[in-house]
Amino acid sequence: MTALNCPHCGVRSHFTHHYHQDGRIGEYGTSLFTCDECGLPIAALREYDGEPIKYWPTKVSGKTFPDVPTPIAATANEAHLCLGAGSPRGAVALARAVVESVAKDKGIHKGSVQSKIDGLHQKGHISDAMAEAAHEIRFAGNEVAHGDLVAEPLNIGDATGIIRLMDTILERVYQEPAEVARIRADREERKAKPVEENSEPDGYSEGPPF
User: Fold this and answer.
1) Residuewise pLDDT in 10s, the chain (210 residues)
2) What total of structural domains would you count in the chain?
């Protein structure tokens, strides 16, 4: 079947067909698929060899971003919701806003989005590869904001790639450093604990009992 956004994991995925039964709902039958990404099932209404005309569940999932500042995490989650709802332009526009917000959060307030990304790189917040990823998000966001609507539109597949780049940037800038800090704090806490000396019970002395 054609790829769609999985209502369980939110990833744009292909689905594997497992079962079909004809004639249960008028001229259509019911089918069972599982997401190739997360393995969870959906039920679909379709003709035997046709594409589903409706499927369940239809919930669109966002994504949580632990350790990311709340306003930035909320915008990134909304980008995922747009992607799941089949709105690639909305998703990409929000991804661009996320990148600019990351720069502002790191103290880079002046200049264009391009200069803000370069500032993140110069200050060591993102690597060469991450800077290139951020610029790709910027290019896509500019295409949405200033592009010719008569031209070939941005599709879901393109937007999915952009959102993955956004996720990677948030992971590198916020989540990985926070995880390293937690691991370091746990190690230092263990190191700071005093070592308990072995002590013998009161009245005990070494030697034979006679």
Assistant:
1) 667 878 887 777 889 999 888 765 567 888 999 999 888 899 988 876 777 888 888 777 788 999 999 999 999 999 998 887 788 999 999 999 999 999 999 999 999 999 999 999 999 999 999 999 999 999 999 988 876 555 667 888 899 999 999 999 999 999 999 999 999 999 999 888 876 655 555 555 555 555
2) 2
Question: Domain limits at 154?
Answer: 70-189
Contact between 109 and 118 (Cβ < 8 Å): no
Q: What is the DSSP letter of 196?
A: P
For 5, counting Cβ atoms within 10 Å of its Cβ (0-12 exposed, 13-18 middle, 19+ buried), the class is buried
Does the bond joining 71 to the residue before it have cis omega, within 30 degrees of 0? no
Asked if 27 contacts 48 with a C-beta cutoff of 8 angstroms, the reply is no
Q: Is the domain of 91 the same as that of 184?
A: yes
In a domain, 85, yes or no: yes
Q: 137: buried, middle or exposed (CB in 10 Å: 19+, 13-18, 0-12)?
A: buried
**How many CB atoms lie under 10 A from the CB of residue 171?**
16
